[in-house]
Specification:
Structural class: alpha+beta
Mean pLDDT: 89
Distance between the termini: 38 Å
Helix content: 40-55%
Radius of gyration: 17 Å
Number of helices: 4
Order of helices and strands: EEHEEHHH
Strand order of the largest sheet: 1-2
Shape: elongated
Strand content: 15-25%
Largest sheet: 2 strands, antiparallel
Length: 97
């Protein structure tokens, strides 16, 4: 079993691995696995994504890519937090700036 690598909004079971990271901060879906003999069972709950964590991830992405956090990018983060743009629009601006 592993986490720390978001694989989508549902667990992934393969022959030698169970991945339960559904990216709760991004998707709002928190998943747990129950191993009690037999195939694993999953518990999940849904909430709201953590917009602050999404912005922090975008900031780190921008810095790793060597982008300066300009006023335009910072304003884009504010727009996302205010709900006037979605995450894909925010990343499009961050990647294109």
């Amino acid at each position: 079993m592993h986490g720390h690598t978001i694989v989508g909004d549902k667990p992934v079971v393969t022959k030698n691995r169970v991945s339960i990271d559904t990216g709760a901060y991004r998707s709002g879906i928190l998943t747990a696995a129950v191993f009690a003999g037999g195939p694993p069972k999953f518990l999940a709950t849904a909430g709201r994504p953590d917009k602050g964590a999404i912005v922090r991830e975008a900031m780190i992405y921008a810095m790793v890519k060597g982008r300066t956090l300009t006023q335009k990018i910072r304003a884009t983060f504010d727009d996302f937090l205010a709900g006037s743009i979605d995450a894909s629009e925010m990343m499009r601006i961050v990647e294109g700036s």
